[in-house]
Amino acid sequence: MDVLLPRTLEEALEMKAAKPEALPIAGGTDVMVELNFDLHRPEALIDICRLPELREWKRENGMIFLGAGVTYGRIMRELSELTPLTQASRTVGSPQIRNRGTVGGNLGTGSPAGDALPVLAAYDAEIELASANRARSVRWNEFHVGVKKTALEPDELILGARWRAVRGPGSFSKIGTRNAMVISVAGLCLVMDDDARAVRVALGSVGPTVLRASEAETFVAEELTRSGNWDDPGADLPVDAMGAFAERVAAAARPIDDVRGTAAYRRHACAVLARRALGWALAARREGVGRP
Ligand SMILES: Cc1cc2nc3c(=O)[nH]c(=O)nc-3n(C[C@H](O)[C@H](O)[C@H](O)COP(=O)(O)OP(=O)(O)OC[C@H]3O[C@@H](n4cnc5c(N)ncnc54)[C@H](O)[C@@H]3O)c2cc1C
Prior knowledge:
about 290 residues; Enolase-like, domain 1; 5-stranded antiparallel beta sheet; globular; binds flavin-adenine dinucleotide
C-alpha cells in the first residue's frame, strides 16, 4: 500500500486529483480500526494530519472556521467558550482518541453517532470542501446523505466547517451504556440564538443522519416569545411547555432497534435530553451565562 505524505494542502489536493482512490487519513482513529479489522484495504493512504491549512481555527467577521484537522483535545483547550462543541469533544473516546481524532474525521466517517455532528447541525454549519481546481461549501444536511455516506467527491478533501458565532447558551449531551468511551445511543445539541430569537436542536444516533427537530424549535421559540423570556430571562415558560417541547423533539427522531438500544428507548432518551438541555439553557439565560 502506498502512503502519500503531502506537506501542504495544495500538494495534497494535487495528489488526490492524481490518485482519487487514495484514502485520507487524519487522526486515523476510524481508518486504522477498519484497516486492523481488514474491513477496508485502500490502494493508498494520503496522510493529511500535518497539513497546516487544516489545523487552524479562526474567528472572522462574526464567523467561526474550524479546520478539519483540529483535534478534540485542541478544541477542549483552545475553544472552551464554544460550550456545546467542547462538551461534545469531551465525550469522544479517551484522552488518546481525543488527541488524535479530528472533526474532519467525524465528518468523513459520517456515522450518525459522530458526537461533533449534532453540534455542527445546531450551529447550521457549512462544510467547506476543495479539490485541485475548485472549492465549494455545502450545508451540514447536504453533506451527509445517508448512514456513513457523504457528498464528498473522490478528488475532494474536507477543509473544515464554518458557522456564524451565536450569542446565547447551549449544550451537548448524550446517553450511552456507560459514562466514558461509549458510542452514543442518543445525542442532542441545543443552541439558543438570542439575536435571531431562535432555538436550534439537533439529534444524533436516532436516524440515518443527524436530524434537526424543526417543529420543536419553532414551538419553543414561540413559547419564549409568548412568555416574554427573550426580553426577560427571568420570565417562566408555562408549566406544560417543557414537556410539550420534549415530546416534539422525540417525535423528530427516526430511531431503529439495534444492539445499543431499542427505537422506543432512543425516543424516550431524546425527550429526556431535550428537557434537560432546555432547562440548562433557561437557567444559563437567567444567570447571564453564555452572553458576552
Ligand atoms: C476507541 C475509540 C473510541 C471512539 N469514541 C468515539 C466517540 O465517543 N464519539 C465519536 O464521535 N467518535 C468516536 N470514535 C470514532 C473516531 O474517533 C471519530 O470519528 C474521529 O472524529 C475520527 O477522526 P480521525 O481524525 O481519527 O479520522 P480518520 O480515522 O483519520 O478518518 C475518518 C474518515 O474521514 C476521512 N477524512 C478524515 N479527514 C478528512 C478530510 N480532511 N477530508 C476528507 N476526508 C477525511 C477519512 O478518509 C476516513 O474515511 C472512537 C474511535 C475509537 C477507536
